[in-house]
Amino acid sequence: MRSAVVALAVANCWALPAAAQDGQSEAISQELAEMRAMMAQMAARIDSLESELAEAEAKADAAQVSATEAVETAAVATAAVEKTPAINWKGAPEIKGEGGWSFKPRGRLQYDTGFVNAPSGTGVDDGWGTDIRRARLGVSGDMPGGFGYKFEVDVANSDLAVTDAYISYESGDAEISVGQFNNFQSLEELTSSLHTSFIERAAFTDAFGFIRRVGIAAEYGSDDVLVQAGLFSDNMDRLSNESWSADGRVVFMPKLGDAQLHLGASVHFRDLESGSEARYRQRPLVAFTDLRFVNTGRFDAESEFAYGLESAVISGPFHAVAEGYWNKVAQPGAMEDPTFFGGYAEVGYFLTRGDTRGYKGGKFDRTKPENPVGEGGIGSVQVNLRYDHLDLTDAGIVGGSQDGYYLSIVWKPTDYTMLLANYGKLDYSNAVYPGTGGDTDYSVDVFGVRAQVDF
Q1: Of 204, 287, 290, 295, whose CB has the highest number of CB atoms within 10 Å?
Q2: What Cα–Cα distance (Å) separates residue 27 from each residue in 16, 95, 163, 172?
Q3: How many CB atoms are located within 10 Å of the residue 159 CB?
């Protein structure tokens, strides 16, 4: 079309000069020559524009093909990334795979040393002691459909024992667990040994036999309320299928400004196998001694009924906690039923700026130093004071009483390492080891140090 127009214009341009020779002036001929030159320039420009347009269309087609290929490549890469397991580091690698799978190795090592100094007249084997308190290895993780698992064994001092071994199912705010795990007794007991503020838990938790048991339990936690309940038999290494227990715990854990509050109560009932005996006793603060200055000895028992009260507050570097626990033991026949009591009160404070005690899910959790070693800081430093009371004398059973006054200094260089030093002065009444002249009221000094690492 463009070529026909140009040809017609050129033909006319050549025809007009012929007519001009019949009577047109030379000026018109000059104008026509100029018009022919302009038409030739226009034709050349049109050819150039058509060439540029064709080149632009070719580039656009190529760019569209490249964009499509890029989108397809990105989709393939995204799919490959989604199928590649994600690895996070939480003291050890935590691997998360497709469909809700996760796997994490876990473990802890706690090495204790120190001394127990009792009055010389008691004749007990006190002095320096050491202990691999815990050496645990295990795994935990999640499975598709809301299921989870945890399995852990303790190999301390060459003795193999299963600690946690359970499967869980979580749906919304509710969780069901089956296997071996901690009963719902006491804030102090449910707080992991990795996060306690003293080398050992409060005296009543060990004296009253708080251990992991095989059972089934349900938990419901929503906002500030946690409800826990379960039915249990016994620990894996002593299953008789004759004794059983029921445990329940309720926790109210609101935030008051920046402060974390904790108010809780628990109840425990245990029906003992026919012909059973009970015994309640306790070491002096540390576990590397076999000395137990308070001890009820063995006596006939049919059941236990116990209840406890819990309270705590965390506000910045400060925390305070107090618990009380009453354990009533039913004896057969017409014998009077004794009620034993244990409790403690504690305050603590971080000397390092920005540090606070961890709390999660109705129990104390990991302290994470604001300025750990390796990142320009010294970690966290915390001091704690505790009064710990245990009374094992009632209804004609004289097991003695123990009043402990404790001081601890806790240094955490990093999230997963800790050094802890404890001093304790324990006052005894009706101790089972008589001193000089038969005296059963005296004091014992205890010092203990722990080095700890976990992953």
Answers
A1: 204
A2: 13, 93, 115, 98
A3: 9
Do the Cβ atoms of 366 and 328 come closer than 8 Å? no
Contacts of 327 (CB under 8 A, 6+ apart): 204, 208, 280, 304, 305, 306, 339, 340, 341, 342
Question: How confident is the model over 193-242, as pLDDT tens digits?
Answer: 999 999 999 999 999 999 999 999 999 999 999 999 999 999 998 887 78
Close Cβ partners of 31 (under 8 Å, ≥ 6 residues apart): none
Q: Is 0.90 topped by the overall pTM?
A: no
Q: Are strands 174-182 and 259-271 parallel, antiparallel or unpaired?
A: unpaired
For the 96-454 domain, the top CATH level (class) is: mainly beta
Locate the domains of the chain by residue range.
2-83, 96-454
List, in order, residues 6 or more apart from 212 with CB less than 8 Å away: 163, 164, 180, 181, 182, 183, 235
With H, G, I as helix, E, B as strand and everything else as coil, classify residue 27.
helix
- Between 87-96, 386-395, 412-421, 442-451, the lowest mean confidence (pLDDT) is in 87-96
Q: What is the DSSP letter of 153?
A: E
Task: Name the CA dihedral angle for 431, 436, 437, 442, rounded to a multiple of 10 degrees.
Answer: -40
Q: Is the pLDDT of residue 299 over 50?
A: yes
